[in-house]
Amino acid sequence: MMKNEISRESIVNLTYQGNVAILTLNNPESLNSLSLDAIKTLLVQLYQLSNNTRVRALLVTGAGRGFCSGWQLDESGVPGLPDESFGVRQAHLMAEYFNPVIQAFHDVPFPTIAAVNGVSAGAGVSLALACDVAFAADSASFLLTFTPKLGLVPDLGASWKLPRLIGWARAQAITLSGERISAQQAEEWGMIWRKTSDQSLLPEAMNLAQRLAQSPPGMGREVRHCYHMAQINGLPAQMEYERLRQRELLDTPSFEEGLRAFQEKRSPKFSPPDN
Q1: What is the pLDDT of residue 3?
Q2: Can you tell me the distance from the alpha carbon of 17 to that of 36, in angstroms, rounded to the nearest whole number?
Q3: Which of 141, 213, 218, 222 could form a disulfide with 109 if both were Cys (CB 3.0 to 4.6 A apart)?
Q4: Distance CA 126, CA 138 (A)
């Protein structure tokens, strides 16, 4: 087990509770908007956590009264060539840092949980949707500002995730209108897993993270990829995918331990892959 510790990075704090890692966006004055420094830090931390076999679950939240108010589009000092347009420069940053962060959430081997406190806007919505499970406090809200306020389309995977979670009609309507979605509405629509009180948000999210941390190693990525393939496969192709994955997974130490624990009527104790 890891001792509680805090990284030296202040813009995105990394702490641990046992084998659960906690990433806290830590720029409360701007409702945790994503600066270039923040997204770089987040990317490095996700890569490091992905290779840390002691980490078995990840919880993501925001400091203060907001989860994440989105991308700092007007940030000064962003590197670029003298003759480069703003759009070209930002597109490079998306390719280099922002999109890889979302991809990193999909590639980490452990389950990921978002604890959405307060406002989640623009890229903040994309960040929450990138996690496997999302909790939202009663005070939380989701706001897609891309289209009606900025003349942009949803990005960082939101246009892929939203229609699959809440349906085409709702996704298109909230994108065009920019209507604020409450935690209650998000739960009813299936955009998040569960709404909870502000006081219970972190305890409930941590409770689930600790439960999921007891799962067989690698299963966050395994289940994530399985359901991703189900979005693009027909039924026969998906059943073949399931068959081939079961062929591999049935021969793993995790299945052997799970079966033994079931037969012995005890809880399984799964080991990290390098143990």
Answers
A1: 40
A2: 28
A3: 218
A4: 19
pLDDT attached to residue 83: 80
Which residue type, as a one-letter code, is found at position 234? G
b/e for 3-31, b at 16 or more Cβ within 10 A?
eeeeeebebbbbebbbbbbbbbbbbeebb
Quote the pLDDT of residue 74. Answer: 64
**Residue 188: closest CA among 166, 173, 208, 167:** 166
Q: Which residues fall within 8 angstroms of residue 52, CB to CB, at 6 or more apart?
A: 21
Q: Which of 107, 155, 154, 153 is nearest to 131 (CA)?
A: 107
Residue 227 sits at φ, ψ, to 5 deg, of -75, -30
User: Helix, strand, or coil here: 135?
Assistant: strand
Residues in the chain with pLDDT values less than 70: 1-9, 74-81, 273-275
Q: pLDDT value at position 81?
A: 67
Give residue for tokens 């890692």. 21
For residue 117, the model assigns a pLDDT of 96
Residue with tokens 């699959």: 164
Sign, CA dihedral 249-254-257-260, equals negative
Q: According to DSSP H, which parts of the chain are helical?
A: 36-50, 86-93, 99-107, 123-130, 146-150, 158-166, 168-177, 183-189, 201-212, 219-232, 235-249, 253-263
**First-to-last CA distance in the chain?**
13
